[in-house]
Each structure stands twice: as C-alpha cells, then as structure tokens.
Write a structure and sequence with these properties.
- The protein is of the alpha/beta class and 285 residues long.
- The protein contains 13 helices and eight strands.
- An eight-stranded mixed β-sheet has the order 1-2-4-3-5-6-7-8, with helices on both faces.
- Helix 6 runs antiparallel to helix 7 (155-165) and helix 9 packs parallel to helix 10.
- It is globular.
C-alpha cells in the first residue's frame, strides 16, 4: 500500500452546521480517528504516520474537528462542538457502529459519546487524556503551558509546550515548530483555542462544575459497554499515567497498555509498538 498523501486523502462532508473535512485511507471496515487539542493540531498531523499500518486492515476516516482551522469555524469551545460534530459525521456517512481511536481530547469525546450512546462505537482506543488525576495535582504541565501559550502566543511559549508533549526532545524540530506556529496563530484558530484553554474559560468551567448537580464524565465511565484499550505514555506530562487508574477500574471491559520512554503522543513517539497493540485489540475476534 502506498504512503498516504494529504491531497489524495482529503475529503469533505457538508452538514447543516458547516463543512467537515476528513481524510480517508485504506480498505476494509471503517475506523474513525479523532485528534487531540493544542496549538496547530490537526487530525492529519496526529495520525498520518499511522495510516499505512491501520489502512492495511481498515478504511481509516480521520475527522478534522471544528474550531481547529481545518473544518468549519465555530463560536463556542471546540470541546463542546466536538461531540455533535462526530455524531453528524458518523450519521452523515452512514457508518453505523464503528471502532474509534481518540487521541487525548478525542478520546474524552469518544468516552462521553459512548456513555450517552452505546450504539455508536464497537471498540474504543484512547491515547492518554481519559480520566482524572489520582496522585498528582491537576492540571498537568502540558495543560499549564498550553494555557500560557493561548494567553500569550509567543514562539518560545509554543516550543515549551511542544517539549512538554514528548519524552524525546529531539522530536521538537524547527519544521514541527513552524508547522504548529503557522496554524496556531491564525486569528480564528487562536480565538477558538482561548475559548477552550484560556484562563477565563478555565475559571468558567470550574464555576460551572462547582454549581452543577451533574457528575463529571469520568464518574460515569462505568456506563461504557464497548471494549476499551487505554494506551498511555509512561512519561506523559500532559495527562500523567496515574489518570489511567480510574478508567482502568471503572470501565467494565477495559485494558491498559503503557509505553515506556513515551510522552503524550504515543502514536507518534512509540509508533510501531503502539500500532501493534492497537491492531491486536481492534482485530481480535
């Protein structure tokens, strides 16, 4: 199978809320991939290197979530808009129940949808992010640096955030920095990031949580009926590995795979080991 190309795999789906961009690659049953958050993030950047391995078994559908500068713009938090966008996408393509891989925020979105609707996903793979801090204080270093960047978007702030994402500091190349900087500093994308990670947004979420009678999503993980594979970098400084303890114990059919010498981007930093674990889980009878 040939290596994927951005332009050759790019697709669009018109919806009543706006155009959703996605990438399609591979043959077989559909597999949905949901990216994480952060400056300059896209689904393509999160997962394109994994498409050859995953695409040998699945028709990979990498959705670009609204508010990150690729799919349609929004005037609300990208996290709030993500769940409805995923539902529109799955139903718009007539996919039926599908397996899903979610990186960080994408994993949380998948978990929340699975709690509310058991008919959406057949299996779920997460990459960090799901759960809540058990031993360490939250938020993690990577989230703190992310807030610092969206409040004061400097190149040095972006570099510090990128360095908190990985174990291998050699991964933070000038090419990566420039790619992320170009998209992260676009006015609409930066405004969207502030609605999610700005100090005012963080304070508003804290006030809302304190006043709400509704439990947080991580207190309802026991409602997920689909099998779940939690993948985690042992050296994750965004969502420390102790966060995995709660979903591992709460989700009825969950298993945990921890990757050494690995930060928040497990599917990139430990690509071969991550792909092997994920394919074994997704193709298991």
């Amino acid at each position: 199978m040939s290596l994927p190309s951005y332009d050759d795999t790019r697709r669009e789906l018109a919806t009543d809320a706006g155009t959703l961009v996605y990438h399609e690659y591979g043959d077989g049953p559909p597999l949905l991939l949901l990216h994480g958050s952060g400056p300059g993030v896209t689904g393509w950047r999160n997962f394109h290197q994994n498409l050859p391995a995953l695409g040998a078994h699945f028709r990979c559908l990498v959705l670009e979530l609204p508010g990150f500068g690729v799919s349609h713009d929004i005037d609300e938090s990208p996290f709030v808009a993500a769940g409805p966008a995923v539902t529109r996408f799955v139903e718009g393509l007539g996919l039926g129940p599908v397996p899903v891989i979610g990186n960080s925020m994408g994993g949380v979105v998948a978990a929340q949808l699975a709690i509310a609707r058991s008919d959406l996903f057949t299996r779920i793979v997460t990459v960090g992010g799901v759960g809540t801090n058990v031993f360490g204080a939250g938020p993690g270093e990577g989230i703190v640096r992310l807030t610092d960047f969206v409040e004061n978007p400097t190149r040095e702030g972006l570099v510090q955030w990128l360095r908190s994402m990985v174990f291998d500091q050699g991964m933070v190349t000038e090419e990566l920095i420039q790619q992320r900087w170009d998209l992260a500093t676009e006015p609409e994308t930066l405004a969207s990031a502030r609605r999610m990670y700005g100090r005012e947004a963080n304070a508003a979420r804290a006030r809302s949580a304190a006043a709400s009678d509704r439990p947080p999503y991580w207190a309802m993980l026991h409602k997920i009926t689909a099998p779940v594979l939690l993948t985690w970098g042992r050296d994750d400084r965004v969502s420390p590995v102790d966060m995995a303890m709660l979903p591992m114990r709460s989700i009825p059919n969950a298993e945990l795979h921890v990757l050494p010498r690995c930060g928040h981007w497990a599917m990139i930093e430990q690509q071969a080991a991550w792909e092997a674990a994920v394919l074994a889980f997704l193709t298991r009878a």
